[in-house]
Amino acid sequence: NIKTTSAEAPGCMHVDVSGNTSCRFYQDYYFAQNFADLGFTVGVFGKHLNVDNPEGPPPGVDRWMVNGGGNYLNPTFSWASRGVTPSSVTFDNCTGGSGCYSTSVIGNASVAWIRDHVASSTLSPKPFFAYVSVKAPHIQDGPGWPVAIPAPWHVNAPVPHSQAPRTPNYNMSCPDHHWLVRQQPPLTPTQASKADDLFVSRLRALLAVDDLVDEIVEALEELAVLNNTFIVFTSDHGYRFGQYRMPQGKWAPYENDVRVPFYVRGPGVRAGSHPSSIIGSTVDVMPTLLNLVNGQAGGAQSPVIPESMDGVSFAADLLQQEDEQRRQRPQRTTLLIEYVGLGDVVRYEHLEDTANNTFRALRVIDPTADKGSRNFKFIEFTDSITDWNFNSVLEMELFDLDSDPFEMVNLAHTVSEAVIKRLHMAAEELYRCAGKTC
Fold this sequence. Notes:
Helix content: 10-25%
Strand content: 15-25%
Structural class: alpha+beta
Distance between the termini: 12 Å
Number of helices: 11
Order of helices and strands: HHEEEEHEHHEHEHHHEEEEEHEH
Radius of gyration: 22 Å
């Protein structure tokens, strides 16, 4: 989550791998070195950045096997160990004639690396960090109606649903929303059917992810290290299958696009618990893990958290500790959501992203606030081509998620100018902050 002030370098809002000295992502900000400094061996496996992945491992990485997603069948990865010249490796030698399946290749490689690492350290195993990421259930890009590709052995597997959820905002017109939403035509029967096919294909593709998780947990158990290992399972974004008349995609600020699963197991984390005090996002994952593995749960002020990280640690909440640092820091109630529009993206015959679909949003959950202010979202849209730095706001949206959980009624024009100004300033503060100041 690195930002620059240069209008010529908007790519730094994501990551800049071009060598720009103001945003040297791999050299200065990559997470692995923080774990290496704590004595960890680090392995990175699977889908990494969509584009511009380095050939060899960034600082702190000992094993590197990554691609940008690539193909589901017979995938190619950049492979290297620390200090070894990187090579391109294609997995295409699987028996059975159906090809090597990407999720299984990634799972097998990560499990083998974990086993080799633990087995080679019989007295006192060096701690390890494995980042395992898969293409599934992304679509396999191509013309027409692209879908996710299940493993060959799951192509006809039974799944619990034959169509995407018909939520209240499914195929609904929302004329008071951002122009990209309000101009959407109704789904045709063909588009709706194809979106359902996509939904089913994703469920089947996830069956191999289930297998990957099983294999990793079973390996940790066999190696007798499961009980002192933290496992985190999460994702990078949600999805839509007809919500707001958009049959496919993920480029909006609404709950179905931005909500993700987040599961943690490990020493000190009570099974079945749902810590209600946590409101977090992906920028908080690394600070939290650094706190957990360092044996500290004191929050973002712990010295193990780099000042360059925007996120905070919620390790104390996961471990349900009431330590002094946690009591002294204010309870967080607001998150920033941000996105830069890719330009015109047409999927399933619908325009689903544009340059001025660039937005920043405040997600607020505050049980102590007055009714109507406890659970809401405020969104500002600008144009990434001319104003990715949010010098102007083209459109606004405001939703009360207690009364309107499917975000169908935009309240931005029903509240006072003073309220809008306060929300704008709060969004501005979180959008401009960096590192510890967040």
